Amino acid sequence: MNERSWERLGAMSGLVSAVLLAAGIVVVPPMVGLGATSTTISQYLANNAMRVRISALLVTLSVLAFLWFVGHVRHVLQRAEGGVEAFSPVVFGAGVALSAVAMVAMVPAAALAFLAPSPGGVGAGAAIRVLYGVHVVAGAAVELLVALFTGTAGAAMVRRELAGPWLGGFGLLVALIGLVAGITTYLGIGGGAFMLVMGYLAFAAFLVWVAVASAVMLYRPEVERAPGAREVFAH
């Protein structure tokens, strides 16, 4: 398999990740707010247990595909930077951290959904609110990592090291949305409904950006423009 084929495979992994993430989001009804009572949370999980578990599975599969995409982006960026490695290490580190936190973030909700249909259920005590809160706050950490990943990759694109400046500008916008969403959730700004909307907006913008970036790199593998890549730092 030549370099062009490997790059197409890497770009395709981004598309697969975006599709799986979209499916993981839409398969489950909107989550209840962080301020919901333990009874409300317990009822939501009991009514949507299988959907929540399917969502967790799809998101986890999306993360696995995304890790391949992250490796692909690092490869083409490292080549474009000529060994200087300005943006590529940060993009790679942010992508790996994003993947790890995203997988961990799904564990509390998946565990609660796994137990909810059982005879004992998950109860209506404080523990269920704590676990649900961990799931929501971990999502805020994911949103901030989305901001770091798309912001760094977007900056590299603006510098014409990868894809195109217009896609880089889109990436910087997604980074801003992720930053606002993460801060909003951590600080509880605007109430549960606003936090929920910002969270969905951040993940929707992210999956669209990944899908578009993957499609662009699939249409024109970066190896075709590698000879024209300019130096990262001016001397």
From TrEMBL:
Membrane-spanning ranges: 12-32, 52-70, 90-116, 136-158, 170-189, 195-219
Superkingdom as given in the UniProt entry: Bacteria
Keywords: Membrane, Transmembrane, Transmembrane helix
Protein name according to UniProt: DUF4386 family protein
